[in-house]
Design a protein that fits this description.
Layout lengths: L8 H34 L1 H28 L14 E7 L6 H9 L7 E7 L6 H12 L3 E5 L5 H9 L6 E5 L3 E3 L3 H10 L5 E10 L6 H23 L10 E5 H6 L9 H11 L3 E12 L5 H21 L8 H31 L14 H22 L8 H27 L8
Helix pairs in contact: 1-2, 2-11, 2-12, 3-4, 7-12, 7-13, 9-10, 10-13, 11-13
Pfam family, one: Glyco_tranf_2_3
Keywords: Glycosyltransferase, Membrane, Transferase, Transmembrane, Transmembrane helix
Protein name: Glycosyl transferase
Length: 435
């Protein structure tokens, strides 16, 4: 039997960095005529600023992502069926329509250890508390109800963590449904990991994708985009968001770092605090949950601008160069330049696309088509991997052709301006909106 050669994470990192740098140099060489033509109109510094934001840096990051995913190999669990007790923490406000189903899916888990559910009611004005208790009784899973009147998800989560007695705590949104093996797999990843791994983010996918075109596009964003970025970050042991919607934490690490902070992106800031304290954060692609995504553009814009704003909150508290691990420096550093990329895309790419329709190819032109093959290769690689994940979980990938078409061609046209609006909100300290 031929033994597979082990390649360290550090070597994988530098292999991917080298491949991405070579691709970027090739891109710069190809773009010289474009650069000269644009420089005649704008001047060389602004031309470099524009093309760097819409082509050079995105190309580098995309090449880094593809190379990393191609050489990624998820290590097997050391223990595949753990029995350690776990507390499930659900912060809920006005979730009477969803909380009962969420608890039913928890009761159907194939996990052999004991599970206790703590539901923290955050000032609900409906029957969320009584529905949660009734569901626990009906489905045979212990549900403890706490009340937190101070508004804000972070208040509710901190209330719950202070009442948690188990080594591990799993946070779950009240509208998120777990695959039957989700708890077992995410706990298996945690206890199979080194001691300094303090959190594992689960995979979140869309459960209401049939609603309209917006939810259909979001299905591909979660399935291809977010999942790929999580895999990349997990490979380099620095998942940047152990999302509150579905993640497992070591209770002691949450307490040590001060719990969830008073921030609109409380899970982002908490995760970066973990990294700053020298902890590592993993990602488990086989631990899957399905969540409700926004069905209206207004709700979608609020959610994504909130995510962008949360990233700025994390950057303000912890600078990338202050992170102790090189992987964390690089991964958080990518977020440091995201406002620049979103700004150039919004201010230059979108107007350039409009100009191209009138025959002016100063910013968007025939050379831009070179980006499409690389994008499609990356999506094909991610799709192939995700299909294997679904097969192992006895799930099927839904055929959503219209959603994929619009996701590839127009999703970023929506996302970049929404993210820019989130950055502006944080810079000017506008009113925070959690929903």
């Amino acid at each position: 039997m031929v033994q597979k050669r082990y390649v360290s994470v550090k070597k994988k990192f530098w292999i991917s960095q080298t491949a991405a740098f070579i691709w970027m140099l090739f891109s710069v060489f190809l773009s010289l005529p474009w650069l000269r033509e644009l420089a005649e109109l704008t001047g060389l510094p602004l031309a470099i600023f524009i093309i760097g934001g819409i082509a050079y840096i995105p190309g580098f990051l995309n090449a880094f992502l593809i190379t990393s995913l191609l050489i990624d190999r998820q290590p097997p669990y050391k223990i595949s069926s753990p029995e350690v007790p776990v507390t499930i923490l659900i912060a809920a406000k006005n979730e009477e329509k969803n909380i009962g189903t969420t608890i039913r899916y928890l009761a159907d888990q194939d996990y052999k250890g004991s599970l206790e559910v703590i539901v923290v009611d955050n000032g609900s004005e409906d029957s969320t508390p009584s529905v949660a208790l009734e569901a626990g009784t009906a489905y045979g899973i212990p549900v403890r109800l706490l009340h937190e009147e101070n508004p804000g998800k972070y208040h509710a989560l901190n209330k719950g963590i202070n009442e948690t007695m188990t080594e591990f705590v799993l946070t779950l949104d009240a509208d998120t449904l777990l695959h039957k093996s989700a708890v077992r797999r995410i706990v298996s990843r945690m206890i199979s990991s080194p001691e300094d791994v303090c959190a594992v983010a689960g995979t979140i996918l869309v459960r209401n994708s049939r609603e309209n075109l917006l939810t259909k596009m979001q299905e591909w964003d979660y399935f291809l985009g977010i999942a790929a970025i999580k895999r990349l970050q997990g490979l380099y042991q620095g998942t940047l968001v152990a999302q509150g919607a579905f993640s497992l934490y070591k209770t002691s690490a949450v307490m040590e770092t001060g719990g969830w902070p008073e921030a609109i992106g409380e899970d982002i800031v908490l995760t970066w605090r973990f990294l700053h304290h020298g902890y590592r954060v993993y990602f488990e692609p086989l631990s899957v949950a399905f969540t409700e995504v926004p069905v209206s553009f207004r709700h979608f814009a609020r959610q994504r601008s909130r995510w962008a704003r949360g990233m700025i909150e994390a950057l303000k508290e912890m600078k990338p160069w202050h992170q102790p691990a090189i992987f964390a420096k690089f991964l958080t550093g990518i977020n440091f330049i995201m406002p620049y990329l979103d700004f150039t895309y919004t201010v230059f790419w979108i107007p350039g696309l409009i100009l191209a329709f009138f025959g002016h190819y100063w910013i968007v032109g025939p050379m831009t088509l070179f980006v499409l093959p690389l994008t499609l290769i990356s999506y094909l690689s991610i799709y192939s991997y995700q299909k294997k994940v679904f097969r192992e979980l006895d799930l099927k990938v839904r055929k959503n052709i219209s959603g994929f078409f619009f996701f590839v061609l127009s999703y970023q046209l929506i996302m970049a301006p929404v993210s820019v609006w989130g950055y502006i909100q944080e810079v000017f300290r506008l009113k925070r909106t959690w929903k």
